[in-house]
Structure formats: C-alpha cells, structure tokens
Amino acid sequence: MSTASAKDYVKKLKSDKGFAKRINACKDADARLQLAKTEGFDFSKAELMAVKSELSEADLDKVAGGGKPPCKVGTDIPI
C-alpha cells in the first residue's frame, strides 16, 4: 500500500468521469476501496486521508464533481 497509489486514484477520479461514476455508485467506503483495488490501486483509508489533507479546495471541488457530494462518507473524496 502507498500514498503514491492514493494520489494516482485521486488523479483518475479527476480525469475519468466514468471511473468516478463507478466509484460513486458503490454502496459504502469498503465497496469503493474494493473497486479501487480491482482497478489496480493499492492504498489504505489512512493513506487516502493523508492525500486528501494535501489537496486544495479547488482540487476537492474537482474530485467532488463541482460541489455535489459524491460519496456516503464524510469526505469529498470517495474511498
């Protein structure tokens, strides 16, 4: 597991709307993490939260799809 993989995950969420839609359709954080792993990402929730803390508000808005909460967890980045 690595923060580099978590950063790559966030980049893909920003650039691939289909991927973001599949992630956001997951029922919970565990399902999102499992889908991310099937897509080749390998990070823990803690590593993703560390990456999230490094993002600017503009970055968070991009991941969140312009302000709509994409996930069922208390973050703007689906896990």
Which properties best describe this structure?
79 residues; 5 helices; mainly alpha; single chain; globular
Give a quick summary of the entry.
With about 80 residues, this protein is mainly alpha-helical. The protein has five helices and no strands. About 60% of the residues lie in helices and about 0% in strands.
Structural write-up:
The structure is a single chain. This protein is mainly α and 79 residues long. The protein is 61% helix and 0% strand. It is built from five helices and no strands. It has helices spanning 3-15, 17-24, 29-38, 45-54, 57-63. Helix 1 packs across helix 4 (45-54). It is globular. The two termini are 14 Å apart.
Strand content: under 5%
Terminal residue distance? 14 Å
Question: Spans with pLDDT under 50 lasting ≥5 residues?
Answer: none
**Order of helical and strand elements:** HHHHH
What is the arithmetic mean of pLDDT? Answer: 79
> Which structural class matches the secondary elements?
mainly alpha
Radius of gyration: 11 Å
Largest sheet: none
- Quickly count the helices: 5
Helix fraction bin: 55-70%
Number of strands: 0
The coarse silhouette is: globular
List the SSEs and their pairings:
Blueprint: H1 3-15, H2 17-24, H3 29-38, H4 45-54, H5 57-63
Helix pairs in contact: 1-2, 1-4
